[in-house]
Write a structure and sequence with these properties.
Helix content is 3%, strand content 47%. The protein has 399 residues and is mainly β.
């Protein structure tokens, strides 16, 4: 069902309803963005508990196109994209019952190439077959972890492991496990070369609200500010610029349509504009060209699965901030010993402290540059670059 409207304001972000998902309404689906297109597929519909169809959304024309089906039916797979290739990993087949063996769990990895509209098999995920895992890309590599495996006895085994996939070698490497609780159906997003993971559930009734940051360069986890809303599972996420957004989900007694923004520089959360529609869980989130999208999911207060697609536009100030920040790449951030700076132009870079004093001046040749920070005190600094027609700035934190 669709009734187009928007709740708008220039000082605040706003939601706009877009064309409904092209396939049947569903939840427990999978999705990602590849380039300037969004993708949603798999999942459970009112007709079939597991599905294999996949669909592409083009925001330029606000339209859906069906692509090649995935090779089998399944729900709740992990997804990520690297360059112009999308990846679907793990998940399970569900027969729709609560019998003794209602699930078949998978470990395979499949790659989708939009240029040929084909799927190809890659090296299997080395961990245990599972569903409810997360998948994300950072620095040209894919990461899959967490999730659960249900035994025939009905007992769930939850995981806190993490694996890295290198598409150049088609090899997996196990990385440091999350120090926090094992979990499934968590929320995840990638900002400024870090992965953020949190929320979810680690047994039938224990809902979590902790948030952890993963640094792929040092293979370490750092606990960050906890999520300020109610703990939950089946939440969705997307990233706009340097901000991560967490939407919806459910706990044992209620469903949500709230939206929360995470600022990775200040490690703070801000509640934003709630979706002007029904509460929902297990939706798919992705972002394209500075806007976030939430599609499909389950809306128990509206009769079940939904095919709605919503677009979130941040405030005018946030759009400007993200446009400027996205032209400078600084990582790791926060940093201890060094930062890497990438600006795709030949400019002079200044490192400035919070008092406005220039601490360092560096000539940049338009490529990645490593800057040692051993002589800097702890605090907040600004990377400033003057290109001649604009001034670019980005904040980083020296720990």
């Amino acid at each position: 069902m669709i009734s187009l409207f928007a709740v708008s304001a220039t000082a605040q972000g706003y939601w706009t309803q877009k064309t409904d998902f092209g396939g049947d309404a569903r939840y427990f689906g999978s999705g990602m963005a590849i380039g300037d297109k969004g993708y949603i597929g798999l999942g459970s519909t009112s007709t079939y508990p597991s599905n294999s169809d996949f669909w592409q959304y083009n925001p330029a024309v606000n339209a859906w196109t069906q692509i090649s089906d995935f090779y089998n039916d399944r729900i709740y797979s992990a997804c990520f994209s690297i360059g112009n290739i999308g990846y679907v990993c793990t998940g399970c087949y569900w027969d729709g019952t609560t019998g003794t063996q209602p699930f078949v769990f998978y470990r395979d990895l499949r790659a989708y190439d939009p240029s040929t509209n084909t799927w190809s098999q890659k090296a299997d995920f080395p961990g245990t077959g599972r569903n409810g895992a997360f998948g994300f890309e950072i620095n040209g590599k894919g990461y899959v972890g967490m999730g659960l495996h249900r035994e025939n006895s009905g007992a769930n085994t939850y995981y806190n492991d993490l694996y890295e996939y290198n598409p150049l070698t088609d090899l997996w490497t196990q990385k440091a496990s999350l120090p926090g609780s094992e979990r499934s159906y968590c929320v995840y997003f990638s900002v400024n070369k870090y992965i953020y993971v949190g929320l979810g559930v680690n047994n039938v009734t224990q809902y979590l609200m902790d948030i952890w940051q993963y640094d792929s360069q040092t293979d370490t986890w750092t606990q960050k500010s906890s999520f300020p809303g109610p703990p939950r599972k089946y939440a969705s996420s997307f990233v706009i610029g340097s901000k991560g957004y967490v939407f919806g989900g459910m706990d044992a007694t209620q469903y949500f349509n709230d939206l929360w923004e995470y600022d990775s520089f200040t490690d703070t959360w801000t509640q934003k504009e709630s979706l002007p529609s029904y509460t929902r869980y297990s939706s798919i989130g992705f972002s394209i060209n500075g806007k976030g999208y939430i599609g499909t999911g389950n809306t128990p207060n509206a009769g079940g699965q939904t095919d709605e697609l919503w677009e979130y536009t941040p405030s005018t100030a946030a759009i400007f901030e993200n446009q400027i920040e996205n032209q400078i790449d600084v990582f790791p951030n926060p940093a201890t010993d060094y930062i890497n700076i990438f600006i795709p132009e030949k400019v002079t870079i200044e490192i400035i402290d919070i008092n406005g004093q220039v601490i360092k001046t560096i000539n940049n040749n338009g490529k990645e540059r490593t800057i040692e920070l051993g002589d800097l005190s702890r605090g907040i600094y600004i990377v400033k670059a003057n290109t001649g027609d604009k001034i670019l700035k980005k904040i980083f934190i020296k720990k």
